[in-house]
Amino acid sequence: MAEGEKMRIDPAAMSKSELVDQLNQLQANAKTDLEQSEAQLLHELQVHQIELEMQNLELREAQQRLEEARDRYADLYDFAPIGYLTLEGAGRILEINLTGAAMLGDERANLIGKPFSARLARKDSQLFFLYLNRVFHSVGGSNIVTEVKIKRGDAVVDVHLESAPMKSTAGQDRTCRMVMTDISEQKRAKGTLKQTLLAQEALLNTIPAKVFFKDKDLRYTAVSQGCQEFFGRQVADILGKTNFDLIPRKQAEGLQRMELSVLLSGVPERNIEHMVTDSKGNQLFFTISLAPYFGPDGKTAGLVGVSVDVTPIREAEHLSQDLLRQNRLLTQRLFSLQESERRHLARELHDELGQWLTAIQAEAGAICSNSGAEREPEICAIAQAIGNSATEVQSVIRRILRRLRPALLDELGLTDSLQELAIQWRQHHPKIVCDMELDGNLGDLSEALNITLYRIVQEALTNIANHAQAHHVKVWLRRVPDVASDPEHLLLTVQDDGKGMYSNLPLKGLGMLGMRERVIASGGEFMSQSAPGKGVCIEIRLPLVAPMEERRKT
C-alpha cells in the first residue's frame, strides 16, 4: 500500500477521543519539508475535517442536553405540586400546567383562552379583578398575593394566588405569571384549630377550677378565669410570667419543685396539697394535679395543671374535728356523770335501804321470838316470811350494787374486779366457758381508765349472755410497752364462738354502741369482726393517757 493510502482515514467512523488522538498524531508527524506540499495540504485537510467532526459531536451533545433539560422543565412545569398559569390583561388563561388544570377540574385544552374568573366562586370574581389590577400596576414587579375560592364540580376549594407581571415590549399585550396553591387542608386545619382554641377558651372561662398551661420555662401560656380571679390580674398580665412574679417566693419555690419534677420525669402527679396566698393576702389550700403535654416531635413541650380550692373542705374538716372533740368531751362528761350517779345511787341503796332491810329483818326476828312458834304460829310464819323477803331483797340489792359500782374496783383495783366479774358471770351462766387473761401491770391505771375497761368487759359479757348463743368466751387484756413510734397502750380482746353477725352492718344495739362511744371518748380505737356462725371478736386499743389529759399536761 502506498504511503498516501496509509494516511487516508475515515473521521466519521471515529469517536471523539479517537479523533483527538489522531489529530495529535498527525500534528506530531507533520513534515516541515516545503517540498512535500501535497502531503502537507492533505494533512491540513484531514485536520480540518477532524475539527469539523469534533464540533459536530459537541453540537449533538449540546442538543441532547438541551432536549433533556427541556423534558425536565416540562415535567417540572406540568407535574409540580402547585399550579402554574400565564394570564393576559383581561384575565384569560394563556398557559397552564397539568396540576393547575387538575385543580380547576378540567382538561388543559378546555381552559386555554378561557377567563380564569369563570372558575371562581361568585363572590370572589370582583375580588379577583381588583387583585389582577394590583398585579399589573405593582412597582418593581413584586409578587402580589391573595386567597380566593374556586369551583370544582359541587365542591369549593380554597386556593392561594401569588402573581407577578411579565416584562412586555411595545405593542405586546400585558401578561402575568401566577402560582396557584391548594390551601383547603390548611384552611380546615386552621378552622379546627380555631374551634379547639375557642372551646379551650370557653372551658377556661367557665370551669370552676383553676386551669393553666405552662411552657418548658414554667411560664404561663394560658389560664382559666379562676386563675385571673386568684391572682387578681388580667390574662395579659399573667401570660409569660412565672410563679415568682405572682406569689410569695417561698410558695413559688415549693410549686416550682413539684412542676420541675413532673416536667423532667414525664410522670403526672395528682392531688398534691399546697398552701398559697392569693392577691388579697388570704392563705388558701389547694390540691394540684400536674401532667406534661407533648409537642409534634413527641418531646415534652410544657405542663398543664388543674388546681382546686379545698379551703372550705379543710375548714369543714377542722370544724368537724372540733365538733368531734367537743362530742367526745361531752361523752366523757356524760359517762363521768353516769358513774357519779351510779356511785351516789349505790351509796343510797347501801346506806339507806340496807339499814331499813336490816331493821326489817331484826323486827321480824323479834316478832317471831316474842310470839312463839307454838303460841302464835301464824304470826311467827308471817314474820319469818317477811325476814326471808328482806334477805332476798338484800341479795338483789347486792347484785345491783355490783353493777352500779363494784366495791373491789375502789378497794383492790382493776385486776381483782375483773376476775370477780368473771366469777360472778360464770355462776350465772354455767353452760358458757369463760377464760380471762390479764397481762402486764394493770395496777397503776387511772380511775377513769379502770372504769372504762371494767364497763366495756361487763357490757361485752352481758351482750354475749343475752345474744351470742356462745359456748366459749375469751377475755384478754394486756399492757403493750413502747415499740418504736408506737407509745405504750392497752389492748383488750373479747371473743366468742356464738352465732355471729354481719360485720358490715351498722351497730344497732345499745351495748355495742355504748362500748364504742366509751372507747372513742377515751381517745381509743374500737374494732369488731364477725360473720354469721363464726362469733364476734371485739378489739379495743386504749392509750394510757387520754388525749384531753395529754393536752392539759402540755
UniProtKB/TrEMBL annotation:
Residues 16-79 form a coiled coil. Residues 270-322 form the PAC domain. InterPro entries: HATPase_C_sf, HATPase_dom, His_kinase_dom, PAS, PAS-assoc_C, PAS-like_dom_sf, PAS_4, Sensor_HK_TwoCompSys. One of its GO terms (cellular component) is membrane. GO terms for molecular function: phosphorelay sensor kinase activity; protein dimerization activity. PROSITE patterns: HIS_KIN, PAC. Keywords: Coiled coil, Kinase, Transferase, Two-component regulatory system. It comes from the Bacteria. Residues 348-546 form the Histidine kinase domain. This is Multi-sensor signal transduction histidine kinase.
